[in-house]
Amino acid sequence: MDSFFCSDSTRELGEDVIGSATDYQTYILVECPLPWVTNAFNSKWVPRNLQILLEEVKQAKLPIRFLLIANDSTHKVEHTTLLIYQKQEGLSSGYIKHEFRVPHIEQVASVIKKWLWGKVPGYEIDSSISRDILICTHGSHDKCCARYGNPFYFYATDTIANLNLKNVRIWRSSHFGGHRFAPTAIDLPQGRYYGCLDEHSFQAFLTHTGDIQGLKKVYRGWGILHPALQVLERDLMLSQGWNWFNYKVAGKILEQSLDNNTILGELTFTTKSDSLYTYQAKLIKDNTKTITVKSSCNATQSSVFVKYTVADLCLVAENVLTFSK
User: Fold this and answer.
1) 164 vs 60: CA distance, rounded Å
2) Residue 222 domain-assigned (yes or no)
3) Is the peptide bond before 151 cis (omega within 30 degrees of 0)?
4) Do 115 and 137 lie in a common domain?
5) pLDDT, tens digit, 9 for 90 and up, residues 10-62
6) Which CATH number fits the domain that encloses residue 74?
7) What 3 state SS string does the chain have?
8) pLDDT in tens, 191-233
């Protein structure tokens, strides 16, 4: 049993990674030194008041994802970085970042509470960082994230340094889903998920250069969209090219069959030239791609992962936006 690695199994089966990004309203990222235990927020450096806040948020069923993050200087710095990423409403390019430099991790819970209550919590800073890329290295949660995530974290930090990208930070992260796609990453503030990454595909999405078709194998989807709509968004991205990453997008499900085998989806997007396009498509369950697989190294049984194919894609509206001055 110990020889089973979920990420190896996924690659052998050739599972399509699209549609596996999770849709959260808010990400709350707390810098915390390693080591992290299986349930990250039970780790020894996580204060009790933060654990209690997590329980309260969970019971209230708020669409918030808490993650621990760390980098090579975490154990040396005199403060704790707290990042809160909040989803933009309507036509969106992803999330809005709030960065806090908190004197001590014990104070993080009260800063988060104030922010959740709509108050100004203090400690917020203006940062020159425009991108935070999280790589799951949470090996105590799933051994694939240690086996593939750890070396990839080192590769990614070296790449940022070699390319002199001062506005990008690479973080180790606790588990955010999809171990079987290790090494897996979230690119914030956009909120796009990637998996089964290699050096070539990482450089492509990092710099938005090269053949965009290469993303087809590693793009898990955009976390601001419903998983079925992520398939439609990927198709449009591959046809539009790298410019797509500068567009604002909104998606909705118009209809779905009772068995969820057929979904009518719609994506609207604005281009740099202020043109507004709306596409609709049928998303049909693809039995040839739908897969039964163990979702993690520790899974005792297999799960079914439904995959969709885009059919009848059509442009239903095209407008030039005019803004009154």
Assistant:
1) 43
2) no
3) no
4) yes
5) 666 667 889 999 999 999 999 999 999 989 999 999 999 999 999 999 999 99
6) 3.40.30.10
7) CCCCCHHHHHHHHCCCCCCCCCCCCEEEEEECCCCCCCCHHHCCCCCHHHHHHHHHHHHCCCCEEEEEEECCCCCCCCCEEEEEEEECCCCECCEEEEEEEECCHHHHHHHHHHHHCCCCCCCEECCCCCEEEEEECCCCCCHHHHHHHHHHHHHHHHHHHHCCCCCEEEEEECCCCCHHHCCCEEEECCCEEECCCCHHHHHHHHHCCCCHHHHHHCEEEECCCCHHHHHHHHHHHHHHCHHHHHCEEEEEEEEECCCCCEEEEEEEEECCCCEEEEEEEEEEECCCCCEEECCCCCCCCCEEECCEEEEEEEEEEEEECCCCC
8) 999 998 999 999 999 999 999 999 999 999 999 999 999 999 9
Amino acid making up residue 293: V
Give the count of domains, the chain.
2
Cβ neighbours for 176, distance < 8 A, ≥ 6 positions apart: 22, 65, 67, 134, 136, 184, 186
Pairwise CA distance, residues 125 & 272, whole Å: 29
